[in-house]
Design a protein that fits this description.
The chain has one domain: Rossmann fold (3-Layer(aba) Sandwich), CATH 3.40.50.720. The chain contains three helices and five strands. Strands 1-5-3 form a three-stranded mixed β-sheet, covered by helices on one side. A two-stranded parallel ribbon has the order 2-4. The longest helix has 14 residues. The radius of gyration is 14 Å and the shape is globular. The two termini are 18 Å apart. The model has no long low-confidence stretch (mean pLDDT 93).
Length: 112
Amino acid sequence: MVSSLCVSKFFHPLNLFWLILVWKKQAEEYLQASGLTYTIVRPGGLKNEDNTESIVMSSADTLFDGSIPRAKVAQVCVEALLQPSARNKVVEIVTQADSPTKDFTELFASVT
């Protein structure tokens, strides 16, 4: 499931528009309680243009700003289907130019 950074922050500007983050957080909670195997991907601000920056992946409620190309979000979602270490996790993702490049096995395994 693709959600959003900052879903746990009630006092966030995106909640001024029909409580967008509140509803995304509620959807996450329903999925987690469903008993289904899941990976919840929380990307930073979405960019249309791809870049060569490395993906930074972190656990829930640890990233609060940053952006990521839509193509890289899609790539993370597909890899989440293939990586056993992605199961039943919430991952937050952005890209950063100064971060070392890691493969997806390493990225998902680093999130607790």
